[in-house]
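RECORD TYPE: inverse folding
INPUT: structure tokens
STRUCTURE:
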């Protein structure tokens, strides 16, 4: 405990060495209030390579999924217009909304719990915005315009033929890639077959869709050409939530100020005046940051945990012969109190809650019925006494078939003897569709002892019961 106190005191002292003037400005806004365009240095290093490999897999999955089909239907489809949704080949209907709601809730809780424990790693490694920005468009930019210093020079130079040519090439390439991405997003909405059919039919036959597609392309282009990191800083609510989600135990990309401060140029060390920490104040970590921040100022909402600064600093540490990890994945507790990250009760409790939620969702998905049935009494109808002494009730039946094949069904009375007369002769529910009909239940008057008798109905596909429903049968009563 004593030791912990000492560490905390040292950490506080070190923290005080950090110049706090950074709080007066935002990296992406100039003193005049204009947009400060960020030109991050091309990152290199182990983590960047790993991120590139991860992104390649991610992009392969993104561009391949729309082509994968299960029984002739896409593996994933989010057709909001036709209210048709397919996840992992399973069709979901508006009636399955509660599964969607639980799925959404699970996703939100997952993100929150994951963030509390592991910080904002999702942003840098899995968010489509970052993947497309850093791993597609930024790489193209480095290829076309060179590294950050060349890009900066190009921006500052007057509009010569060279600059116009460079800009035209970049705009064309960015717009083309945005167009491809927009097409794939469209494929996730209406299906790849539809998209390919539209391509074959040509623009004239699909002018409305084409205009929407150009609209989306323009939005993507605007985001990746100009708006960029502003999406994460200004638009994305997740970034803004960091302040409430993170605590001292959260693992984030962090600068070890205890080790690094007071920062100082390596020159001092050579001159024998070395009384500084491990940070040589080279600003390599700032130069690679795609959001323009200095991670040495602590965790900031702009940080997307892309880890570029870790690579940059490790490279410097190698050069100055100091241990790597001055910037690393660590919690405030790791740094200030030199505590190792342990599997704590909190992590366990959060993980348990997550497992429960994911389990509930999986159970719902597995036990989801292929046929959904609703029975309602015909409005305004009481009961009818038949000449043969039986009592009849009329009902409306609505069946939804969520599968890709037609399902012939039959109805049976489960808890009482009687007859079911279905108005429609053929009780086959067409695939991916609804079916509506009426039916009459006829029961001997002797068996109806009460005014309201609960009747259990079984819906069968061949001999297999697929659904059980209870309806109220009205009778004269005694
Ligand atoms: S501070 Fe580091 S991890 Fe955060 S966005 Fe900048 S480079 Fe990426
Ligand atoms: S890269 Fe490392 S050494 Fe250089 S300024 Fe950043 S933290 Fe300090």
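DESIGNED SEQUENCE:
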């Amino acid at each position: 405990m004593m030791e912990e106190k000492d560490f905390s005191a040292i950490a506080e002292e070190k923290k005080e060495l950090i110049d706090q003037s950074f709080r007066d400005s935002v990296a992406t806004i100039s003193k005049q209030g204009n947009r400060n365009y960020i030109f991050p240095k091309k990152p290199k290093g182990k983590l960047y390579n790993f991120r590139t490999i991860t992104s390649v897999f991610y992009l392969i999955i993104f561009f391949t999924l729309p082509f994968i089909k299960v029984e002739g239907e896409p593996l994933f489809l989010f057709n909001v217009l036709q209210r048709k949704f397919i996840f992992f080949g399973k069709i979901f209907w508006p009636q399955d909304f509660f599964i969607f709601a639980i799925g959404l809730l699970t996703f939100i809780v997952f993100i929150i719990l994951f963030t509390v424990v592991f910080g904002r790693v999702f942003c840098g490694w899995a968010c489509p915005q970052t993947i497309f920005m850093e791993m597609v468009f930024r790489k193209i930019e480095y290829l076309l315009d060179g590294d950050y210093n060349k890009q900066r020079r190009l921006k500052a130079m007057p509009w010569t033929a060279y600059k116009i040519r460079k800009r035209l090439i970049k705009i064309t390439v960015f717009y083309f890639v945005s167009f491809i991405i927009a097409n794939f997003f469209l494929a996730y909405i209406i299906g790849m077959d539809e998209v390919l059919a539209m391509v074959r039919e040509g623009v004239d036959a699909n002018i409305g869709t084409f205009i929407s597609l150009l609209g989306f392309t323009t939005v993507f282009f605007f985001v990746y050409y100009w708006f960029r990191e502003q999406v994460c800083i200004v638009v994305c609510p997740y970034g803004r939530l960091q302040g409430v989600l993170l605590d001292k135990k959260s693992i984030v990309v962090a600068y070890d100020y205890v080790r690094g401060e007071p920062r100082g140029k390596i020159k001092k060390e050579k001159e024998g005046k070395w009384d500084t920490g491990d940070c040589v104040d080279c600003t390599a970590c700032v130069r690679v940051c795609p959001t323009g921040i200095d991670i040495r100022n602590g965790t900031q909402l702009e940080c997307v945990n892309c880890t570029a600064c870790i690579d940059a600093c490790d490279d410097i540490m190698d050069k100055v012969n100091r241990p790597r990890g001055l910037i690393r994945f660590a919690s405030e507790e790791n740094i200030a109190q030199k505590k190792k990250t342990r599997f704590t009760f909190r992590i366990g409790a959060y993980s348990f809650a997550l497992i429960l939620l994911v389990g509930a969702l999986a159970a719902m998905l597995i036990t989801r019925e292929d046929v959904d049935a609703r029975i309602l009494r015909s409005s305004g109808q009481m009961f009818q006494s038949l000449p043969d002494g039986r009592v009849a009730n009329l009902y409306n039946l609505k069946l939804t078939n969520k599968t890709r094949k037609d399902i012939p069904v039959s109805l049976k009375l489960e808890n009482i003897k009687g007859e079911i007369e279905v108005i429609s002769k053929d009780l086959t529910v067409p695939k991916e569709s609804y079916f509506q009909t009426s039916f009459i239940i006829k029961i001997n008057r002797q068996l109806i002892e009460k005014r309201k008798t609960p009747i259990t109905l079984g819906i069968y596909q061949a001999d297999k019961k697929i659904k059980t429903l209870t309806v109220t049968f009205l009778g004269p009563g005694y």
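NOTES: The chain is about 45% helix and 20% strand.
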